Amino acid sequence: MPTTHYDTPRIVLIRSRKVGLINRAVQLAILAYVIGWVFLWEKGYQETDSVVSSVTTKVKGVTVTNTSTLGTRIWDVADYVIPPQEKNAVFIMTNMIFTLNQSQGHCPELPDDNTECNNNSSCVPGYVSTHSNGIQTGACIPYNSSIKTCEVFAWCPVEDDNHIPKPAFLQAAENFTILVKNNIWYPKFNFSKRNILPTFSSTYLKNCIYDAQTDPFCPIFRLGKIVEAAGQNFQEMAVEGGVMGLQINWDCNLDRAASHCVPRYSFRRLDNKDSANTVSPGYNFRFAKYYKESSGIETRTLIKAYGIRLDIIVFGKAGKFDVIPTMINIGSGLALFGVATVLCDIVVLYCMKKRYYYREKKYKYVEDYELVGLLG
C-alpha cells in the first residue's frame, strides 16, 4: 500500500485536537462571562427596583453687613433663602444689587445705543424693547450732566446693574449650613429608609458637619465645603452665582442587612463655567419688597439677587434575590454554549492556516455523476 495513504489521517488527527482545544477555550470564555459578569458583577440573580424619593432642606446661618446704602444690618435665613421652600432645591443669596425707594413715574432710561438721544425726534412714544425698564414717552431728557436719554414711564429710578459688588455682599455665606432630609422607598420590596440613620443621636446631629473622611453620613453640609468639593472657589462663585448639584446615591443590595444600605454623597457644579464664554454667567433673578407710604404712594425696593442654587439629585437601584431572573440568566448562559461550536467552526474554516483539511472532513463534495446515480 502506498505510503501517501497514511498522511491524511495523521493530519486530520492534529486538526481534531486543535479544534477541540479551540472549542474548550470558547466554552471557558462563555462560562467566565456568565459567572463573572452576569452573576457576580451584574448580580443577574436579583430582581431590581428604582428609588422613589422626597427631599426637604433647612438652612441655618446669620451674618452682618455694614454699607453706606443700608447701614448696619443683620441677615438671617428669612432674608437670604428665596423662596423659603423649593422642590428638591434651595437658593441662598450671596450677592445683590439694591434699587431703593422706587415708585411709578417718569424718569430717564439707562443710556445705551438705543436710548441715548439729542432731541425728542429720537424717542418713539410707546416704544418698548426687550431690555427696556419702561415705556418711552417720546421725550428726550437729561440722564446726567453730559448724556440725554429717552424718558420712560417706569418704576423710578430705574435699576443700574452694570456694576456687580465685588467681593460678594454676603461673603460669610460659605459658613451657612444646610440640613438635607431625604426619605427613600423601594416599592417593589416595600423597603424604606432615610439619610438620618438610626444610629444617629440628637447630640450627634446637632454637632456634626459632613466630611468625606470623618463624617461621610452626616446630612448637614457647609455651603463653602460643597462648592470646594466640586473643585470651585466659593468667593468667586458667590459674586455672580451658580448652580450646584448635591447627588445622593442609594445603591442597595437588599440580600444584605438593612444597615448596609446607606447614602453616598457627591458634589458637582451644574452650570457651565467656561472662561472663554463670559456671556450671562452665573445665576440671578429679581424680586421686590413693596411698601405703601402714609400719603398712599406705593414704593418698592428692587433686589437683583445673585446666589447659589443647590439642586438635590437622588438616584439609586436596589436588588434582591429572585428565582425568575436567576433561572432566566442560567438558561441564557446555557444557550450561549451552543455558540461555542459556531465560533469554533468560523475559526478553523476561515482563520487557521490549514483550514482546507478541516473543510474536507466537515463537508462531503458529491460529483455530478454520483448525484445522478443517487437520484436515478
UniProtKB/TrEMBL annotation:
Main location class: membrane
Transmembrane domains' residue ranges: 21-41, 330-352
Gene3D superfamilies in UniProt: atp-gated p2x4 ion channel, atp-gated p2x4 ion channel domain
Membrane-protein topology: Multi-pass membrane protein
Source organism superkingdom: Eukaryota
Disulfide bond as UniProt keyword: yes
Location(s) in or outside the cell: Cell membrane; Lysosome membrane; Membrane
UniProt entry tagged with the keyword Cell membrane: yes
Annotated InterPro entries: P2X4_purnocptor (IPR003047), P2X_extracellular_dom_sf (IPR027309), P2X_purnocptor (IPR001429), P2X_receptor (IPR059116), P2X_RECEPTOR_CS (IPR053792)
GO biological process: calcium ion transmembrane transport; response to ATP
Pfam families: P2X_receptor (PF00864)
Disulfide links within the chain: C107-C156, C117-C140, C123-C150, C208-C218, C252-C261
Similarity remark: Belongs to the P2X receptor family.
Function: Receptor for ATP that acts as a ligand-gated ion channel.
Protein name: P2X purinoceptor
Organism of provenance: Meleagris gallopavo (Wild turkey)
Gene (UniProt): P2RX4
